């Protein structure tokens, strides 16, 4: 009896264990499903890209599969399949870079391989493998070494890889295959077929241009900085006034630290700029668009993000006193103005980049920011310690000082954006605003017209912190302020 | 005559142009030569790596070349060559990751491909290409999509690529090649031969371990932070005293900003940690060394570098007055102490990491730093403005405040390093110092023994700012302080 019951227990145990395994598998599958959905929703272009790759691969595979084409190329047809899988990348620039690298390297290495084969054959049957082995060794070592050159690593890394590969294959296989030139010709043709399929699908079917990505990324990063600076003044001084933290909701706070992603975008920006170099003229971008200048702006934007990261530490600093110090009351106005004017300038710059118009609308905000800096200096000069001591006002003084650094950085960003605008000849906006646009604006925000001077202030309540596609309002405002 | 002279001129022109072209080519070649020499000198392991790749490739090529082996594997031998070129990477971890990914993916996709082939054959001659095309499309789209999953992108990206490649090749080629299983078997064997050659050479011939690289990189970054903090106090306050900048030579200044490379190491660190995951036990590192904790320290180190970047802006700030303000005189001592004690703590942590000993020697410096912070607070509380105004003392106050942040960050770094030490069970150093080591130390630095208390100060003049291989001295100092 005991034996049977223990066997029963064993069975129940197995069933329970199987159930738990299935339960975990189900939960895991649900997780994966959610993850997939999120990726697809975050960037639907990933789904489009997957379909594009599958399409190119199916076309080339069927091309390989059907007899008439197969008879022409022999088993070399597989190189077309291989080429598609390996070179199809997310952006057009990356695909072009790999396709051209692969094509050129195959041609070069193929020719050299045939030469090596010929040279080695002069040494007789015994000398041939030694000479070939020596040549392969030499070229492989030299090519691998060149892959560490910064310039080659950046643009031609893949080409060098394919060069070594093809050279070895051609040089060594020559001994066996009699019709080496025919084989090389077949292989090159199939690679060209595969490469061309990729390039055509990549360029003409919902293309993702690396240049445009870089352009948008820089504009987005400018906006992220602006979002922080826009909120900072209110957040820091609101804290002081209430004597407690969290004046903003959690959502708004995560908006505020959106700039953090900028801290680590260097690699992305550089590879995008690198791929953009390979791209033909597209949309509003000429063939020689000043991509290098974008990197210059990117460096300054990152510099600004570092300062903001330090600044952010002071929002909920424990060093800060509970109430509002006398100094905080005095510098609140100029500091908030510095912060918000810098934010406005950055938003104008971002919008100018996005719409590829001259960023002259940012100039007034840069100027306003300079005035605010002067006001801050006056306030600091006039301040006497009174009852408070230096330790108490330490955070406020530090915030003022770093904000000053940030505003200088914003000035530099404005200068560099002007440079891009000049080199890429962004269009200058007309100072006249079309009447219907003006009317539209009156309905969109609260406009407070001033009789003389033509300086118009428009307030629009922005609620979303996500990258809004286009800031029509700021463009219009710019037109009015010019 | 005129015609001849113009022809002569043309000739002279061509000669001159050729000369200039050759001159430029020569200069270019000299540049490239210099570049090569520099790369080789900076990291001789690159040369070793090139030779290793060439060796692996030559072995596999000759294996393909010689008839007896060739007869066994047929043209599939080329897959061995291909495998070597594609998977041989700089670090052992990267090579293993690629080799295992490639082997597994080929096996999986090959099996699935044969299955697909069988399934399609059930649909008759007309249905077969349609079913096969559909299957290739489906799998290619799904696999490409999974490449965007963060976890898969990190560890199995290459495997998925090879999976798509092999599946397409097997599924589509099945129609032609009768002996598909034999072919798949041949291909897998040659890939295993290529992969094994790479792995063996990579592991046993001057291996470069990704884990060790990460370990050293983190230690080096700690030292770079320390170098800045060590120099900062002197540099900032020396400026104030002299009323002019550049108390340090240019070389020293470039030493000081060595921390800048830390700002952008995130990608390198993460890929190294990822490759380290694939590596077997080596040297002092167990199989499950806590590589993830290294990334935690890396995040804190970068945080510290951001603050230091802001701090660095104040060394030659224009805001700073010409002379030494009263405040600067008052806070110079605690600030310099905070900075130098933080630097000492970081150096101890770096040395503890390098030697894999318990970082208890850093604790006293962290404690000293906390005392310095308290002293600074006292100095600030006791300060009255007197003749100077707030604008004048702005930079000094900001520097003090950011230094306080930095010292907090150093504390966190120390805590995380303790965590690594506990998890990886770093050895605790004995408080007794071997007599011969003590003697050795007496000859290496100036040792000032104190009669009671056992607290020994050792000063060694460091002249180089490059990554010194191992700080024996600081290890010994630690042993004495325990």
TrEMBL record, chains A, B:
Keywords for the protein's UniProt record, in alphabetical order: Ion channel, Ion transport, Membrane, Transmembrane, Transmembrane helix, Transport
Gene Ontology CC terms, in alphabetical order: membrane
Transmembrane portions of the chain: 46-66, 78-97, 104-124, 130-149, 156-176, 188-210
Primary subcellular site in the record, as a coarse category: membrane
Keyword Acyltransferase carried by entry: no
Intracellular or extracellular location(s): Membrane
Entry annotated with the keyword Methyltransferase: no
Domain of life: Eukaryota
Gene Ontology biological process terms in this record: malate transport; monoatomic ion transmembrane transport
Membrane topology of this protein: Multi-pass membrane protein
Similarity comment text for this entry: Belongs to the aromatic acid exporter (TC 2.A.85) family.
Protein's name according to its UniProt entry: Aluminum-activated malate transporter 8-like
Lineage: Eukaryota, Viridiplantae, Streptophyta, Embryophyta, Tracheophyta
